[in-house]
Amino acid sequence: MDSVTFTSNEFIELKTLVYQICGINLHEGKLELLKSKVAKRMRLTKMNIHEYLSHLKSNEHEVIEFIDTVTTNHSFFFRENESIEYIVDHFNRNPQKAKKQFKIWCAACSTGDEPYTIAVQLENLGLSYTILATDISHSVLEVAARGIYKNDKIKNVPKPILHKFFQKGVGKYKDHVKIKKKIQQQITFKKFNLISDIMKQTDFDFVLCRNVMIYFDNQTSEKVVNKLYKSISPNNFFAIGNAESLMNMRHKFKAVKGMASLYRK
Predict the structure, then answer these.
(1) pTM for the full model?
(2) Domain named CheR-type methyltransferase: which ranges (predicted)?
(3) Residue 260: pLDDT band by 50, 70, 90 thresholds?
Protein backbone atom coordinates (compact mmCIF):
# COMPACT_ATOMS: atom_id res chain seq x y z
CA MET A 1 0.00 0.00 0.00
CA ASP A 2 1.78 3.14 -1.24
CA SER A 3 -1.12 5.54 -0.70
CA VAL A 4 -4.60 5.68 0.74
CA THR A 5 -7.86 7.43 -0.07
CA PHE A 6 -9.72 9.48 2.47
CA THR A 7 -12.66 11.86 2.20
CA SER A 8 -12.44 15.64 2.38
CA ASN A 9 -13.94 15.44 5.88
CA GLU A 10 -11.26 12.98 6.96
CA PHE A 11 -8.57 15.27 5.55
CA ILE A 12 -10.04 18.19 7.52
CA GLU A 13 -10.11 16.04 10.69
CA LEU A 14 -6.47 15.07 10.20
CA LYS A 15 -5.42 18.62 9.41
CA THR A 16 -7.25 20.03 12.46
CA LEU A 17 -5.80 17.43 14.83
CA VAL A 18 -2.22 18.04 13.70
CA TYR A 19 -2.70 21.82 13.89
CA GLN A 20 -4.10 21.67 17.43
CA ILE A 21 -1.28 19.51 18.79
CA CYS A 22 1.76 20.68 16.82
CA GLY A 23 0.77 23.97 15.18
CA ILE A 24 1.71 22.55 11.79
CA ASN A 25 -0.50 23.78 8.97
CA LEU A 26 -1.19 20.99 6.47
CA HIS A 27 -2.58 22.72 3.38
CA GLU A 28 -4.16 21.12 0.30
CA GLY A 29 -0.77 21.00 -1.42
CA LYS A 30 0.29 18.37 1.13
CA LEU A 31 -2.65 16.05 0.35
CA GLU A 32 -0.77 13.50 -1.76
CA LEU A 33 2.16 13.48 0.66
CA LEU A 34 -0.26 12.95 3.52
CA LYS A 35 -1.89 10.01 1.78
CA SER A 36 1.42 8.19 1.42
CA LYS A 37 2.45 8.99 5.01
CA VAL A 38 -0.89 7.82 6.44
CA ALA A 39 -0.51 4.61 4.42
CA LYS A 40 2.94 4.08 5.94
CA ARG A 41 1.63 4.51 9.49
CA MET A 42 -1.34 2.23 8.71
CA ARG A 43 1.05 -0.52 7.60
CA LEU A 44 3.09 -0.15 10.79
CA THR A 45 0.06 -0.09 13.11
CA LYS A 46 -1.84 -2.74 11.07
CA MET A 47 -5.00 -0.60 10.99
CA ASN A 48 -7.41 0.45 8.27
CA ILE A 49 -8.06 4.12 7.55
CA HIS A 50 -11.02 4.47 9.92
CA GLU A 51 -9.23 2.69 12.76
CA TYR A 52 -6.09 4.76 12.22
CA LEU A 53 -7.86 8.13 12.22
CA SER A 54 -9.69 7.11 15.40
CA HIS A 55 -6.36 6.01 16.92
CA LEU A 56 -4.82 9.39 16.09
CA LYS A 57 -7.61 11.24 17.93
CA SER A 58 -6.93 9.36 21.16
CA ASN A 59 -3.15 9.00 21.03
CA GLU A 60 -0.89 12.08 21.00
CA HIS A 61 2.18 9.84 20.78
CA GLU A 62 0.94 8.52 17.43
CA VAL A 63 0.31 12.08 16.22
CA ILE A 64 3.97 12.86 16.93
CA GLU A 65 5.07 9.70 15.10
CA PHE A 66 2.89 10.75 12.18
CA ILE A 67 4.30 14.28 12.16
CA ASP A 68 7.81 12.78 12.07
CA THR A 69 6.97 11.19 8.74
CA VAL A 70 5.45 14.40 7.29
CA THR A 71 8.01 17.02 8.29
CA THR A 72 11.44 16.95 6.70
CA ASN A 73 14.24 16.80 9.26
CA HIS A 74 16.86 17.92 6.77
CA SER A 75 19.75 19.09 8.86
CA PHE A 76 23.53 19.07 8.80
CA PHE A 77 26.44 20.53 10.74
CA PHE A 78 27.28 24.23 10.25
CA ARG A 79 24.02 24.85 8.37
CA GLU A 80 23.27 28.60 8.13
CA ASN A 81 26.22 29.19 10.44
CA GLU A 82 26.57 32.96 9.90
CA SER A 83 24.24 33.94 12.75
CA ILE A 84 25.79 31.35 15.06
CA GLU A 85 29.28 32.57 14.22
CA TYR A 86 28.17 36.14 14.97
CA ILE A 87 26.87 35.11 18.42
CA VAL A 88 29.94 33.00 19.25
CA ASP A 89 32.15 35.98 18.38
CA HIS A 90 29.92 38.27 20.47
CA PHE A 91 30.24 35.94 23.46
CA ASN A 92 34.00 35.73 22.97
CA ARG A 93 34.28 39.53 23.13
CA ASN A 94 32.30 39.71 26.38
CA PRO A 95 34.64 41.23 29.02
CA GLN A 96 33.08 38.93 31.64
CA LYS A 97 33.52 35.77 29.56
CA ALA A 98 36.00 34.16 31.99
CA LYS A 99 33.37 34.24 34.75
CA LYS A 100 30.22 33.72 32.68
CA GLN A 101 28.42 30.57 31.60
CA PHE A 102 26.49 31.28 28.41
CA LYS A 103 23.01 29.74 28.26
CA ILE A 104 21.57 28.65 24.91
CA TRP A 105 18.27 27.08 23.87
CA CYS A 106 17.87 25.33 20.53
CA ALA A 107 14.08 25.24 20.45
CA ALA A 108 13.67 22.85 17.49
CA CYS A 109 16.88 20.87 17.51
CA SER A 110 15.86 17.97 15.25
CA THR A 111 18.68 15.37 15.13
CA GLY A 112 21.10 17.54 17.11
CA ASP A 113 23.25 18.97 14.31
CA GLU A 114 22.50 22.55 15.39
CA PRO A 115 23.26 22.34 19.14
CA TYR A 116 26.45 20.37 18.46
CA THR A 117 27.46 22.95 15.83
CA ILE A 118 27.16 25.70 18.45
CA ALA A 119 28.87 23.65 21.15
CA VAL A 120 32.02 22.82 19.19
CA GLN A 121 32.54 26.48 18.29
CA LEU A 122 32.13 27.63 21.89
CA GLU A 123 34.31 24.78 23.15
CA ASN A 124 36.99 25.65 20.61
CA LEU A 125 37.27 29.11 22.19
CA GLY A 126 37.31 27.75 25.74
CA LEU A 127 34.01 29.43 26.65
CA SER A 128 31.76 28.09 29.39
CA TYR A 129 28.23 27.22 28.24
CA THR A 130 25.18 25.02 28.62
CA ILE A 131 22.77 24.15 25.83
CA LEU A 132 19.17 23.04 26.16
CA ALA A 133 18.11 21.29 22.95
CA THR A 134 14.41 20.51 22.56
CA ASP A 135 12.12 19.00 19.96
CA ILE A 136 8.60 17.62 19.83
CA SER A 137 9.85 14.33 18.37
CA HIS A 138 11.29 11.68 20.66
CA SER A 139 12.79 9.81 17.70
CA VAL A 140 14.98 12.72 16.54
CA LEU A 141 15.97 13.38 20.16
CA GLU A 142 17.18 9.78 20.44
CA VAL A 143 19.39 10.31 17.37
CA ALA A 144 20.69 13.57 18.86
CA ALA A 145 21.51 12.00 22.22
CA ARG A 146 23.47 9.20 20.52
CA GLY A 147 25.59 11.76 18.68
CA ILE A 148 26.50 9.44 15.80
CA TYR A 149 26.27 10.82 12.26
CA LYS A 150 27.02 9.80 8.70
CA ASN A 151 30.00 11.53 7.10
CA ASP A 152 27.82 13.46 4.64
CA LYS A 153 26.46 15.49 7.59
CA ILE A 154 29.89 16.91 8.47
CA LYS A 155 31.08 18.20 5.09
CA ASN A 156 30.94 21.83 6.27
CA VAL A 157 32.78 21.27 9.55
CA PRO A 158 36.22 22.97 9.53
CA LYS A 159 38.95 20.33 9.64
CA PRO A 160 40.59 21.52 12.91
CA ILE A 161 37.22 21.34 14.72
CA LEU A 162 36.44 17.98 13.12
CA HIS A 163 39.70 16.47 14.37
CA LYS A 164 39.33 18.02 17.81
CA PHE A 165 35.72 17.17 18.71
CA PHE A 166 34.65 14.20 16.57
CA GLN A 167 35.69 10.54 16.72
CA LYS A 168 36.05 8.63 13.48
CA GLY A 169 33.98 5.45 13.28
CA VAL A 170 35.39 2.00 12.60
CA GLY A 171 33.85 -1.35 11.65
CA LYS A 172 30.11 -1.00 11.07
CA TYR A 173 30.49 2.74 11.79
CA LYS A 174 33.21 3.16 9.16
CA ASP A 175 31.39 6.00 7.37
CA HIS A 176 30.26 7.71 10.58
CA VAL A 177 31.55 10.05 13.27
CA LYS A 178 30.65 10.43 16.93
CA ILE A 179 30.59 13.61 18.96
CA LYS A 180 33.11 13.44 21.81
CA LYS A 181 31.69 13.00 25.29
CA LYS A 182 32.98 16.35 26.58
CA ILE A 183 30.67 18.07 24.06
CA GLN A 184 27.69 15.81 24.72
CA GLN A 185 27.93 16.49 28.45
CA GLN A 186 27.21 20.20 27.88
CA ILE A 187 23.90 19.57 26.11
CA THR A 188 20.57 18.50 27.61
CA PHE A 189 18.12 16.98 25.13
CA LYS A 190 14.47 17.23 26.14
CA LYS A 191 11.02 16.80 24.58
CA PHE A 192 9.19 20.11 24.27
CA ASN A 193 6.05 21.16 22.37
CA LEU A 194 6.40 24.78 21.23
CA ILE A 195 2.62 25.12 21.07
CA SER A 196 1.51 23.74 24.41
CA ASP A 197 4.54 23.57 26.74
CA ILE A 198 5.78 26.45 28.89
CA MET A 199 9.47 27.32 29.26
CA LYS A 200 10.05 28.50 32.83
CA GLN A 201 13.63 29.62 32.26
CA THR A 202 13.91 33.31 31.32
CA ASP A 203 17.67 33.94 31.25
CA PHE A 204 18.88 32.49 27.95
CA ASP A 205 21.65 34.42 26.19
CA PHE A 206 20.73 32.98 22.81
CA VAL A 207 17.59 31.19 21.58
CA LEU A 208 17.32 29.57 18.17
CA CYS A 209 14.08 28.43 16.56
CA ARG A 210 15.12 27.79 12.99
CA ASN A 211 13.38 26.14 10.06
CA VAL A 212 10.32 25.07 12.03
CA MET A 213 8.04 28.09 11.52
CA ILE A 214 7.93 27.30 7.81
CA TYR A 215 5.36 24.67 8.86
CA PHE A 216 3.28 27.16 10.90
CA ASP A 217 0.71 29.73 9.83
CA ASN A 218 1.26 33.37 10.79
CA GLN A 219 -0.93 33.21 13.90
CA THR A 220 0.91 30.20 15.32
CA SER A 221 4.32 31.65 14.45
CA GLU A 222 3.48 34.88 16.25
CA LYS A 223 2.38 32.95 19.33
CA VAL A 224 5.62 30.92 19.36
CA VAL A 225 7.86 33.96 18.75
CA ASN A 226 6.33 35.86 21.67
CA LYS A 227 6.63 32.82 23.91
CA LEU A 228 10.32 32.55 23.03
CA TYR A 229 10.81 36.28 23.65
CA LYS A 230 9.99 35.73 27.33
CA SER A 231 12.73 33.12 27.67
CA ILE A 232 15.55 35.49 26.65
CA SER A 233 17.31 37.82 29.06
CA PRO A 234 17.39 41.56 28.14
CA ASN A 235 19.62 42.60 25.21
CA ASN A 236 20.22 39.01 24.16
CA PHE A 237 19.59 37.18 20.91
CA PHE A 238 17.06 35.21 18.88
CA ALA A 239 17.67 33.45 15.55
CA ILE A 240 15.26 32.08 12.96
CA GLY A 241 15.98 30.25 9.71
CA ASN A 242 17.10 32.07 6.57
CA ALA A 243 13.87 31.06 4.81
CA GLU A 244 11.73 32.50 7.62
CA SER A 245 10.61 36.01 8.52
CA LEU A 246 9.07 37.92 11.41
CA MET A 247 7.32 40.29 9.02
CA ASN A 248 3.57 40.73 9.56
CA MET A 249 3.91 39.58 13.17
CA ARG A 250 3.47 41.62 16.33
CA HIS A 251 6.62 41.19 18.40
CA LYS A 252 9.20 43.21 20.35
CA PHE A 253 12.40 41.90 18.77
CA LYS A 254 14.77 44.28 16.98
CA ALA A 255 16.63 43.11 13.89
CA VAL A 256 20.43 42.90 14.16
CA LYS A 257 21.81 45.15 11.44
CA GLY A 258 23.62 43.32 8.68
CA MET A 259 22.66 39.86 9.96
CA ALA A 260 19.75 38.16 8.23
CA SER A 261 17.45 36.18 10.52
CA LEU A 262 19.06 37.43 13.75
CA TYR A 263 17.22 39.57 16.31
CA ARG A 264 17.80 41.11 19.71
CA LYS A 265 15.53 41.54 22.72
Answers:
(1) 0.87
(2) 1-265
(3) confident
- Decide: 239 and 83 in contact? Cβ < 8 Å: yes
Are 101 and 62 within one domain?
Answer: no
Q: Specify the CATH number for the domain of residue 54.
A: 1.10.155.10
Contact 237, 264 (CB under 8 A): yes
Q: Which of 147, 135, 257 is nearest to 208 (CA)?
A: 135
CB-neighbour burial class of residue 257 (10 A; exposed 0-12, middle 13-18, buried 19+): exposed
- 76 domain-assigned: no
The parent domain of residue 116 ranges over 82-264
In total, how many domains does the chain have? Answer: 2
Q: Which of 17-31, 118-132, 136-150, 173-187 has the lowest mean pLDDT?
A: 17-31
Closest alpha carbon to 251 in 237, 241, 240, 265? 265
46, exposed or middle or buried, with CB in 10 Å at 0-12, 13-18, 19+?
exposed
Nearest CA to 183 out of 98, 83, 96, 113 is that of 113
* Whether 126 and 204 share a structural domain: yes
Domain presence at residue 1: no
Can you tell me the distance from the alpha carbon of 30 to that of 166, in angstroms, rounded to the nearest whole number? Answer: 38
Are 119 and 60 found together in one domain? no
Whether 106 contacts 140, CB under 8 Å: no
